[in-house]
Amino acid sequence: MNLSEEEKLMYKVMKAIFDSGIPISFKGAMVLKACLFEVGYTEETRHTVDIDANWNSDTPPSAEKMIDSLQRALSKSGIDLEVSIYRMYGEGRSAGFELTEKATGEILFSMDIDVNRTIASTKIYDMDGLRFRGVSPSQMIADKLSAISTDKVFRRIKDVVDLYYISKAFDFNRTDVMRTLENSGRSLDAFYGFLHRSEDLRHAYEKFRFDGDVNKPSFDEIYCAVKKYIKDVLPKDN
User: Fold this and answer.
1) Cα gap 61→226, rounded to integer Å
2) Cα(67)–Cα(107) distance, rounded to whole angstroms?
3) Tens digit of pLDDT per residue, the chain (238 long)?
4) 44, CA 20 to 30 Å: which among 88, 127, 199, 208?
5) Are 99 and 83 in contact (CB under 8 A)?
6) Contact indicator for 193, 150 with CB cutoff of 8 Å
7) H or E stretch including 97?
8) Helices and strands (H and E) in the chain: how many
9) What gap in Å lies between CA 21 and CA 56, rounded to an integer?
């Protein structure tokens, strides 16, 4: 599994945040890569240019508190990036940060942080010596299932792609997934768009870009693999 230069730097940033003790756990594509890496999955996966995370604390942090905490963590680890916020968190909205190279002013990547959502199941990952706290495999599967069970699936085609990768490395445990959904306050919808609007889904997938030289499987390969993988939670008439 090859990592882009941005992804290597993002893992260093995630380790710096973990080492600092900020109440942040990570999720999204960066955790998926580490998750697959740990179980020996070697095929290429889609690249990403952002970090997704959860911040859970007793009191809601101010924008200044978040920026200062993140900046201190990077500085302590010798990472010469500047943190700025471009979107404050709110109801149903994550906080958005940009990490910029100080010397050139170039924005290298972004970080989206959900604040004080329901606490997710997590574990410690080690990505080639870089340790951080991220959501557990069962939490990742549950979150992606919840998203694609609704008509958000057309905007969340990356979750279908990620379930395709996951299907190659992890068995599907319906009991574990349903328990994780319940514990995190999530549920499954009817999968109507996923099951009955496959051509619209194909169109969304065709527009989805795989950066770099990562192989983009055919839509039929991904769709059939994911449908088979999640069959235990699909409506019985399917």
Assistant:
1) 38
2) 16
3) 788 889 999 999 999 999 999 999 999 999 999 999 999 998 889 888 899 999 999 999 999 999 999 999 999 999 999 999 999 999 989 999 999 999 999 999 999 999 999 888 999 999 989 999 999 999 999 999 999 999 999 999 999 999 999 999 999 999 999 999 999 889 999 999 999 999 999 999 999 998 877 889 999 999 999 999 999 999 987 5
4) 199
5) yes
6) yes
7) strand 95-101
8) 9, 7
9) 12
Query: For the stretch 55-65, what's the b/e string if a residue is b when 16 or more beta carbons lie within 10 angstroms of its beta carbon?
Result: beeeeebeeee
135: tokens are: 């959501």
| Pairing of the two strands 107-115 and 95-101 | antiparallel
Contact 44, 215 (CB under 8 A): yes
Apex 23 CA angle, 50 and 153, nearest 5? 40
d(CA 206, CA 223): 12
pTM for this model (two decimals): 0.92
* Other CB atoms within 10 A of residue 98 CB: 17
**Distance from C-alpha of 190 to C-alpha of 22, rounded to nearest angstrom:** 37
Q: Give the distance between the most distant pair of CA atoms in the chain.
A: 59
Phi, psi for residue 115 in degrees, rounded to 5: -115, 125
Q: For tokens 């990620």, what's the residue?
A: 162
Copy the structure tokens of residue 149: 């069970």
* CB atoms closer than 10 angstroms to residue 168: 12
